[in-house]
Design a protein that fits this description.
With about 140 residues, this protein is of the alpha+beta class. The protein has six helices and seven strands. A four-stranded mixed β-sheet has the order 2-3-4-5. Strands 1-7-6 form a three-stranded antiparallel β-sheet. Helix 5 crosses helix 6.
């Protein structure tokens, strides 16, 4: 184990959600919101074809909470409110490094990129779960 103890927490690949929920950048905001609510998730990865172009979060939607009831806004594409060019993590990134990146960047999720392919999403909840498992021990 390295002196900084990062290895004991594992890597992003050990804690990420594989096959994250996605939408096309032209998806209507109302449809994306409905998908997030039904899946009980806080983030959707946004693609233009096979290219990651953004992430839609509950924070993005929260900024529009008062206006989402209006039909014109609900039919607007997610590309209008998504966070463009999201920060990504590599599968082999130590969990502690990914957690620090989330904290310092003030974001809730990192798409996980292996070469050019998106292989998962690592969220603040994943980071907390990983860190708590170390503190409490396996199976706690």
């Amino acid at each position: 184990m390295r002196p900084d103890g990062q290895e004991r927490y594992g890597q992003v690949r050990d804690w990420m959600t594989r096959a994250p929920a996605t939408v096309d950048d032209g998806c209507p905001i109302g449809v994306a919101l409905s998908r997030m609510r039904s899946a009980e998730i806080r983030h959707l990865l946004v693609f233009d074809g096979d290219r990651l172009v953004g992430i839609l979060s509950n924070r993005d939607l929260g900024r529009l909470a008062g206006a989402l009831g209006r039909d014109p806004l609900a039919s607007e594409p997610v590309r209008r409110i998504m966070t463009e060019n999201p920060i990504t993590a590599a599968p082999e990134m130590p969990v502690t490094q990914a957690a620090r990146l989330l904290l310092e960047s003030r974001i809730g999720a990192l798409p996980v990129r292996d070469d050019d392919a998106i292989v998962g999403i690592f969220t603040l909840s994943d980071a907390l779960e990983a860190l708590l498992s170390m503190v409490e021990g396996p199976g706690a």
